[in-house]
UniProtKB/TrEMBL annotation:
InterPro entries: ZrgA-like. This is DUF2796 domain-containing protein. It comes from the Bacteria. Keywords: Signal.
Length: 182
């Protein structure tokens, strides 16, 4: 993970998942319909990292060659660039976007080294990292991902890991159960 905060805070969960993955096979790092979300609230900073197969967001994973595919990639990149339209936060928290980073081979980025696996060479992932600054972080008790599910109906499940004032937890979210509790 890029941000130091998430790398340090989520290390125990990542290690546990790696252990489970080793014992029970793949946890579906690249499973269509499934995305991963890491969230950390530290002081007045809320960081969110979303990793999803491109299929969930744009509807395909190959390099965009047709005009329609290229237009869809541009549309999704623009949507992902506006996190406050995809993630509903309590208004009382007063959160604003301070940083957005989007990465994907579909956006012209080179694939990550770990995406060169012989079984995954035809897959593309999209990574979104958001850093929000909240004037009243105590009001961030939950985040509603319903707008994200509505915008991207190909995303059926989000596996979440959260670090907040109440500690660390994880769980699965869906369109029917889209509230991420801190």
């Amino acid at each position: 993970m890029r941000p130091l905060l998430l790398a340090l805070a989520l290390m125990p969960l990542v290690s546990a998942h790696a252990h489970d993955e080793h014992q029970h096979g793949s946890l579906g790092k690249h499973e269509h319909g499934v995305a991963q979300l890491n969230a950390a609230l530290d002081g007045n900073t809320l960081e969110l990292e979303l990793e999803s197969p491109a299929m969930n967001l744009v509807g395909f994973e190959h390099a965009a060659s047709s005009a329609a595919d290229k237009a869809r990639v541009v549309q999704v990149q623009a949507q992902l660039g506006k996190p406050l339209e995809l993630i509903a936060l309590p208004a009382a928290a007063g959160c604003g976007v301070s940083e957005v980073e989007l990465h994907s081979p579909l956006f012209g980025d080179a694939p990550d080294a770990d995406e060169h696996d012989e079984h995954e060479h035809e897959h593309s992932d999209i990574h979104a990292h958001y850093r929000l600054t909240c004037s009243n972080p105590g009001a961030v008790t939950q985040v509603d991902l319903a707008p994200l599910f509505k915008s991207f109906p190909g995303m059926h499940k989000i596996q979440s890991q959260v670090i907040g004032p109440q500690g660390q937890k994880g769980g699965d979210l869906s369109a029917a159960s889209s509230i991420l509790e801190f």
